[in-house]
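For anyone still unconvinced, we reproduce a single protein record, the chain in one-letter code, the fold tokenised, and leave readers to judge:
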Amino acid sequence: AEAISGLVIVLFLTIVGYEIIDTAIDKLLDPSLITTPDIYAALMAIFGIFINLAISKYIINIGKKINSPAIVADGEHQKTDIYSSIAILIGVIVSNMGFPILDPIIGLIIGLIILKTAYTIGKENIDNIMGKVPDDRLIRKIEKIVHKTPNAHEAHNIKIDNYGSYSVVSLHVKVDGDMTVNEAHKIVHEIEQNIQNKLPAVKSVSVHTCPLGLEYKHEQKIDKK
């Protein structure tokens, strides 16, 4: 749902970018469509830039904090108002300087920036839907947590599935082969708790124990899914 919401915002961004580019091209082909904005428009544009910058930054920070692609995408969408205000402000300046033709050129650039933003957000959300390779830093953190757990040894076959704002982790951990089932269970529980406590984005952890010293034919260090 998170990724789908992000893609809906991408659709709106694409439409906005297209409309800005279409308007800019019309003005370039027919300069009579270019008008000279007054100083009031410039003041409103400046006000809009600061307000929307604060709002978009706040939304994006919240989205990153809770690992929500949809909220981050909404913050990026909010930036389109900033780009529009910048285009208006520059348009006022260059028009009053006697270069009105720069107005649609700047509009064209702004439109392309918005489309680039839509592409970036779209790619990230599609990756979340299709399953992207997890950050190696996350793999390293999981290994470190296991390493610090008493009586737990090498972590391997680490798999991470991303589902938008949360991840599901599964891994194998080597323990003493002479350990009782109850002792092994306590280690598994501790590892699962430590991973979820230290990595809030991980909502589910599954740990499989393997006897220390027993080698597996198809054993692998890391399996990034």
